[in-house]
Amino acid sequence: TSFQKVISLNPNCADAYSNMGLSLHSQGKMNQAIAAYKKAINIKPNYAEAYNNLGNSLKVQGKLNEAISAYNKAIKIRPDYAEVFNNLGVVLQDQNKLKQAICSYKKAILFKSDYAEAFFNLGSAFKDTGELDKAIQAYNKALLIDPNYAEAYCNMGVALQVSGKLEKSLEAYKNCILLKPDYSEAYINSGNALQDQGKFEEAIKAYNVALSLKPNNAEIYYNKGSALRSIGKLKEAIDAFGKAFFQKPDHEAAQALYLNQLAHICDWSSIAKDRKLIPSLGISKKSVDPFSMFCLEDAPQRHLIRSENYAKEKFKQKSMPFPVKQSNKSNRIHIGYFSADFHNHATMYLMAKVFATHDRKKFKIHAYSYGPVKQDEMRKRLISDVDIFHDVVDMDDMKIVKLARKDKLDIAIDLKGFTRNQRLGIFAYGLAPLQISYLGYPGTLGTKFIDYIIADPIVIPDNKKEHYSEKIIYLPNTYQPTDNTRFISQKNITKEEMGLPSSGFIFCCFNSSYKITPREFDIWMRLLGKVEKSVLWLLKSNPWAINNLKREAEARGISADRIIFADKVLQEDHLARHKFADLFLDTFNVNAHTTASDALWSGLPVVTKIGKGFVARVASSLLNAVGLPELVTESEYQYETLILELANNPKKLLNIKEKLQRNRSSFPLFNTELYTKHLEKAYLTVYENYNEANLPKTIHIR
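-> structure tokens emitted (702 positions)
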């Protein structure tokens, strides 16, 4: 009103129009603000401040190109206008023009060296480009100018966290909270860092504080759900994920984990309500955890898109160039294996003897462990079987990268992929000139920094290669290693101790509960109905899955007491109890992987149905490698028919078991020495291809 009075007295007062525009902007009346600025500019064409303010209002309306035009006009009038360069940088950053944004922020700082906000924005732009050290430096400069800049502490914490400097990131978040106790973002980020440290209970407490400040925030519920599932509170996790996408219906990452956790507890009716969503999750610009979707659909083309979207969002680190190759290179190739699972874990049960069998005349083997320190027998065995073992769990990403480069690795092997506790970010920087995805993740990673994936002609047939971002190394028999010295307990255990009936056919599936879907279960229940006195022996995973599976059996007319659940036991005892089962029944979307190897090593035949994607074809690969292709079926009808035939024909099943017993020692699956030679030939081939300055290409090992 005051400015309008000024204008009524002096219609050519440009300052009154510009200031009135600021007042209107602060009231959210952007159209009127823009009109006021334009009147100011009409009166005073060289009015740089009015152009700057016009740009700010256009930005709020999302008219970014028009905002840039206004800022550029302000700069043309006043080339040293620091605030305009800062504002221009913000709009350029919004358009993902990060290099131009960085240049603009630097100009703002050039003209105003104590400009804390410009340093803060520069840090954010560097964070977006993955130049995390530069981001941290910029945030520190902002804090030197303004020690009370809470947001700078918070954003610096994020950059430190992404770098793997978790303790320092938590310290930054604490400083932020001291300055701004009601800043929910700092609590959210603290929770995320605590999750990265495996401190899930503390993380949940941080998320609860954040929810008290922002009770309707979807992201907090999503993060809390992730922490809850990590400590086995699956029902609470499902509730949290559900609340996340209730608050934000397009929160696809929450929807994916919600459905995945429902799969873990075998709540198929709840999955069915949202089944129509599954094909679209993670397919557009929004990313989801790619691993969470494997159990929900067998669709390799969509698995690739999800991986690409996820990798693009998560890994913005700049790859560091490697020095020019030395001509006096050592005659041994340096191989680095990276994992969080160098302890009693499925990966080690498969890989242990490969580490010991590597030819030390040709290879120097390094192992880098970034997982929990568990001084068990598998870890001790690994340490004695590699040339160099590094425990890097407390190192940030850059320190690990520098260590790997100091060790002069030629090939870096990722054994984790998108599974829990992965640190693929170190591969994004570049650990070695050649980087390979192997064993831990049965699918494509969709990144630009992983050169190869180790596979075989069954898990990735020629007509599916296009669904993998990596070049493929085809091993001749199977991609999966085995340890042909694995000990099977000789304890005198009985069926009764296992909770099994003394007579009757025992179908078994020791796959995790999330792999079981109604498709398999319908077949299994029909088989129980047709094979008198038969039972189904499953692995005990969580109490909700047990209750749901019993309920689903009853709904199909099968008594719940015909499903028996096996406790988790020591590995050698687990292998030993396979002798009580008659036939292992595989799951479809996600096959038995290590569990299939366990069964076959223990002498138990596996019937599978071959699927489309890597993850759905593993058991077929193993059965072919042990000379039992007749146990691979191509449809649900064939799968059910074959199982029923074997259950009703004891002689045919006995012949299969005897054949498996013979083939264990004569076929490639359990020939660790032959497998390791093929793996080493693959390493030598890709290394030679690299030395000849060729780009990665598909490799067939014979």
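The chain has a mean pLDDT of 96.
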